[in-house]
Structures are given as structure tokens and as C-alpha cells.
């Protein structure tokens, strides 16, 4: 109850910011971003578009990957209309397709640009069961697996940029508090869901993908340390906000639900604040492997806190993203009786 009251009144935390802070608020003390190149997925609308606008306002060069180039060009036009000096590059990317992710990375590397900041923001909520061209359930493929491969293929470029410029690289994975709604065997459920051996539950599928984002951040942090890379990785919950994520279910019921919850909703500028804070604020230099909400560090769910599960998901993700000529399901196995999470060892 106390935390809810703090949220509603916008009480600030240790960072000096809170639920009512905006992306512009949290970047007022950020260093000059004119030397920063940032990739932001899902920047054609909602939180991603506002994140892009704020970073462009602070001087960052932006690379906007998008499935719809028309929507990305419209985003670029809006931002450059407000900030005529903004440098924005648009490239095609469909995160649900591993071949598209590889093509994007090839095109980006051909530009010979540095890479300081990677914001994995794009999200999809699939109300109907669908499977990607790579044989993976669509919500998981888009929200997590595409970002996993994108990040993996760009790690060396980020480490190289940090080494050459002396500027810390940052990776920001946008998750959601809904990650705490998923319990159980992540990989086992993914296989059942993909093969339609269990009834499709859209909310549980979304929660699984967001849990994977947090686990990805945890294991990624360990691997960055092993690389001795001057790059951090953190995860954020932007808050509850009405964006195009609900575009497949507009109507009276959805409108009524959002009206009743309106006092708990953030505006889009407020929802972009935590991403902007984690991506740019000097206070977070050297901070990695953490989870943030309302611009302050908080604890993720117990399911998201297991190093064992994070490493297990990483190994499975590498298997799923290994090129295969037959494009069939990658044969993930449910957790074995001897393959227990940390709290069961």
C-alpha cells in the first residue's frame, strides 16, 4: 500500500527521480550525447519513439531499425522537424526473423559507425498463437530471441567502441513487471506453447518473454565481465502506459479498462524516463546487471534472480539462433530432474 501511494504521488527515490519524472527530466544532467551512437528498437511509436526523441534532443546519433520503413521515416521526420540537426539513420529489421537480424547487423556494420548504446525496446503482444519463420512462438521470438541475437552480434562492436573512445557502452533491455507472473520451467513451457501441446495463453506468453529479458540481462552481465568489456547491461520496467501494444484489441472493453486504471497509467514521456535514465545518467557508470523501475533500482521476481536459469536460457538461446538449413524446431528439452534451479540445489 505504501509503495502504491508513493507511486501515485510521484515520490522520488534514491536517484532523485520517481514515477512522475519524464525522459527530459532525467537527462538534464546527462553528459553531452553528441559523441554517442544509439540503436533503439521499436522506436516508431510509444515509449521507443519518445526515447528516441529525448536522446536526439540531447545530441545522440540514432539508428532506428524497423519492420515498417514508412513508420520509421515518419518518426525521423517528426524528430528532425523538432531538432533539425538530429542525425537519424533508418534500417530495416524484423525482430521475429533471425535472418533479418543478421541482415540488419551486416548493414549497420557496413556504415562503419561506433556503437555506444543499444536499447532493446521493441515489444509485441500476440493475442493469437503464431510461430516465427524460425519455428519459435512469435511473442518469444520477437520480444526476446531477436533481441538476444541482435545483442550478441553487436557485443564486439560495442566493446571495441568503448575501448577506442573511453566511453562506457550501455545495453538497456526493456522488460515489464509482468515478468513476475510467469512461474515454472521457461524452456519446457516454450516448447509446449510453440508446438501447441498446451492451450495458448497470450498473457503468460508475454510474461515469459519479459522474464527472458531479465534473465538475459543477468547472464549478459557475467559475459561482459568475462570479456573485460567497458559495457554495462541493465533491465527496466517502464511502467503501465497505453501504447500501440494493445492495437489488436481496441474497443469498448479495452477502453473501459484503461479508463478505470487511468490514475495508475503513466504518460508516454513518463514511461520513457527509466530507459533514458539507465541509458544516460552519470550516476549509473559501472552499474550492471540491475533491474530498474521509476528510475530507481528494485528487485525483480524470484524467477528472474537465478543465475542457473539465466545461464540455461542463454545456452538454449544460442542453440535456437544457430543457423539451420531446415528451419525446424530446435529440440529444446524441458528441465531434467537433475537440472534444478539454485533454490532447489
From TrEMBL:
Keywords: Oxidoreductase. The keyword Oxidoreductase applies. Residues 316-345 are annotated as: Disordered. Gene3D superfamilies: NAD(P)-binding Rossmann-like Domain. The keyword Cell inner membrane does not apply. GO terms for molecular function: oxidoreductase activity. InterPro entries: NAD(P)-bd_dom_sf (IPR036291), SDR_fam (IPR002347). Belongs to the short-chain dehydrogenases/reductases (SDR) family. PANTHER family: OS03G0115700 PROTEIN, RETINOL DEHYDROGENASE. This is Short-chain dehydrogenase TIC 32, chloroplastic. It comes from Ensete ventricosum. The lineage of its organism: Eukaryota, Viridiplantae, Streptophyta, Embryophyta, Tracheophyta.
